[in-house]
Predict the 3D structure of the following.
Amino acid sequence: MIIQRGFKTELELNNRQRTLYRKHAGCARFAYNWGLRRKIETYKLTGKAPNAMELHRELNQLKLGEFSWMYEVSKCAPQESLRNLDKAFEHFYRRLKNGQKPGFPKFKSKKQGLGSFRLTGKIRVFEHFIQLPRLGRIKLKEQGYLPSKSNRVHILSATISEKAGRWFVSLQVREEISVPKNVGPIVGVDLGINRLATISDGSVIENPKALKRYGRKLKRFQRYLARKQKGSRNWEKAKRRLQRLHVQVTNIRRDVLHKTTTMLAKTKSIIVIEELNMSGMLKNHRLARSLADVAFFIFRSQLEYKTKWYGSQLIIAPRFYPSSRCCSKCGNIKEKFSLSTRIFRCEKCGLLIDRGMNASYNLETVTTSSMETENAWSETGGNSLLAVPVDETGTEQRIIQFS
């Protein structure tokens, strides 16, 4: 099986390299904003916008005179930036075609960070270094992680980005992998705020709540930044300290999500999760911050591609499937069950069980009709199935759509 994946690691740069990288990032940002301005002007006059190749030819003419400083950086930086602009305009055209309210892509600002730039061409990976076009050899902080070019791995591009003063390289590669046969158990996974994931095999993954844990510290650093004179050296130091703390919160969340989804995809043959109405849930202002911190959408997207790699299957239960309101023992469904009630008590059979564990048991029953699920899987060759219950008890299931 041939897949595309990315490998990201930190670079160890000296002052000369940092200056050169800032020039490349600035050139890519300038090319994007210049191209966006030309696209908007042309679209308003003619109803059509020039593509990336037309803009690149026009930019090459300007580099002979007005933009001669662009020769100091690799030609890939502005060229790939204009290709990214083409992808941004595809969303604009799609919204226009669907009758939705369109909006032009936004201009990039240095205030939002230095940004990134992408390089293509001859890219070589060594144990301690990576060699990039025009930039030469750069020392890696983590050795032996990036894949080198081989018969099974083909390097497509390298993206250099900056975050909180640290520089990273991300390699996009096309890799040939052998998908193993997964013989693990079938599990249902209930996602939540207090607990990130409750699995029907009895295990529980705790939510790190990184944003809540560092909330007071973030507020304090915000106050330090607000009290400094904007643009001064102390303001820059306070800003960098705040950025580093935000990166730390992001890394804690990302680490738990990757470890959990990898464990599930490797050790479980079929994983059932519920489709959640995140846009509606985020309208609850009491829970919006906690819901955004737990990142349910990233959890699902990681499962979607990792199950392909490790030979497992992902089933998405429908949005209105009563996983929390249904008794996992007798099938009785409660008409109302508040979110604050953490213990499920069945009036019909007397079952007393944790709310999340009860929901995970119900999600596991989505695969009760295992024969039909496997047939649907083999016919479509897909990886994600959307299932709904046949009757209101949720014990008999059928597949109605594949995604």
